[in-house]
Specification:
Largest sheet: 5 strands, mixed
Distance between the termini: 46 Å
Radius of gyration: 32 Å
Strand content: 15-25%
Number of strands: 21
Shape: elongated
Structural class: alpha+beta
Number of helices: 14
Helix content: 25-40%
Length: 442
């Protein structure tokens, strides 16, 4: 690494660049350690990659004195060692931390902002060295031994200034891009609302008068059924290949083109499973989170479990794709119909009785055509958004790598070499040791 760096740079372990430590947790059994506390006590969730001005929890002076927590000065770098390894922050106020956070007060001549960016650059390396089970962690020892390219003190400031400027622009771009996805979601919802209210084809009806819209129920234009879950204890019911068996989890996709599980003829016979044809609409009748009320369409022939309602539309009565739009447009209304305690459910009766708008077949077809064009436009925008987000996600690592190769700002030959800074810091660290030995000798 050193042979690729500018002449005035050096390599140093993090441990040589500041005074490191970690925090502690006052006993939760002692209420006097927390009650009416005024000292911000940070946990990893409080770290924000920027300056922290407070914490969710506060401790008292007694809690500070009665634990290994330490009062940290403003301008102290914080680094997470447990779970979210490498997550950082800088203290803006006096505070304390728990033992999952390492702290570093940079030595004179070491820029806090440069050191902060350096740890962010080192984050992937720190994560790779995580140890433990479900919650990976690193020790303070691992953190302190990480080697860092160190430029002269003045160049550290120039690099930190440049990174602050360019990364602020990157963050601004990321923030703007993050606002696009909700806009696309609202656009799709507005298309569904317009499609099922008549607004989408208002101009079309002026040219092709169709009469007023009617309403109907799902059961009057489709057959509605469900499925079952074959006994897991019977090894003859499931196989790697066979008839696809679809659950409510699949309703998050617009079209189901494959199944994660397959059932055998024995399972179909034993549980009287119906094989539904391509084009069948599936409505999730129950499921956690957003699942209940979701609508998809079978792109394959498949059986289903009891958490789905299968809607086979009679296409002489209504256009299947329009029925799908109508069900999707009324997602929230479907969820309101659910009943039950902790996990409300729909049932076949409610699905059958669900009300649908019913324009003429010709207008249904025109609505589907126009909606498909608008959704295709939204899909193209979403693809471009994802490409842009992928590109911008690479900018920060690339800029940090460029900075720590010495390529972000020009070097000034008049700057004091980093090696001189390191020698001075080493000399300062040795002074307390010499004094202690002198006292012991006397």
């Amino acid at each position: 690494m050193s042979s690729q760096l500018p002449a005035n740079w050096a390599i140093a372990p993090l441990g040589d660049l500041g005074r490191w430590g970690s925090g502690g947790t006052p006993s939760r059994n002692n209420v006097d350690f927390y009650r009416d506390g005024t000292i911000p006590w940070l946990v990893i969730g409080d770290l924000n990659e920027g300056y922290v001005h407070g914490a969710q929890n506060q401790i008292t002076e007694a809690g500070l004195a009665g634990s290994s927590a330490k009062l940290l000065a403003p301008g102290t770098l914080l680094v997470a060692m447990y779970g979210s390894i490498g997550k950082t922050a800088v203290t803006a106020v006096p505070c304390a931390t728990n033992q999952a956070i390492a702290s570093c007060l940079p030595h004179q001549g070491v820029s806090l902002r440069y050191l902060h960016r350096a740890v962010q650059w080192l984050k992937p390396t720190l994560i790779q060295q995580g140890q433990g089970g479900a919650q990976q962690n690193i020790s303070q020892g691992i953190l302190k031994t990480q080697e860092l390219p160190l430029p002269p003190a003045l160049e550290q400031q120039r690099i930190a200034d440049k990174l602050d400027t360019v990364l602020a622009r990157v963050n601004a771009v990321n923030d703007r891009l993050a606002r696009v996805a909700p806009l696309l979601k609202r656009f799709r919802q507005s298309v569904l609302a317009a499609a099922t209210s008549g607004r989408l084809t208002a101009d079309w009806r002026e040219v092709f008068p169709q009469g007023s819209w009617q309403t109907t129920e799902v059961q009057h234009i489709a057959s509605v059924g469900t499925g079952a879950t074959p006994l897991r204890s019977n090894s003859e019911f499931f196989a790697e290949a066979g008839t696809p068996w679809v659950t409510s989890a699949a309703t998050s996709a617009d079209v189901v083109r494959q199944a994660s599980e397959h059932v055998t003829p024995a399972a179909i016979a034993a549980h009287r499973l119906k094989v539904y044809p391509v084009g069948t609409l599936l409505v999730a009748m129950y499921g956690e989170g957003k699942t209940r009320g979701q609508v998809t369409e079978l792109g394959i022939s498949a059986t289903i479990n009891q958490a789905c309602a299968a809607v086979v539309v009679n296409e002489t009565l209504m256009v299947r794709s329009f029925v799908k739009l109508a069900l999707q447009a009324n997602y929230l209304e479907m969820r309101v119909l659910a009943e039950g305690g902790n996990q409300p459910n729909l049932n076949l009766s409610k699905v059958k009785g669900f009300s649908l708008p019913r324009p003429s077949l010709a207008e249904q077809s025109e609505i589907v055509r126009r909606a498909d064009l608008l959704f295709a436009f939204a899909d193209r925008l979403e693809a471009r958004l994802q490409a842009a987000q992928t590109a911008t996600s690479r900018l920060t690592p690339a800029l940090l790598a460029k900075a720590f190769r010495g390529e972000l700002v020009p070097q000034d030959p008049a700057d004091e070499p980093a090696a001189e800074l390191l020698r001075r810091l080493a000399a300062e660290r040795s002074v307390p040791v010499k004094k202690a030995r002198a006292k012991r000798a006397s």
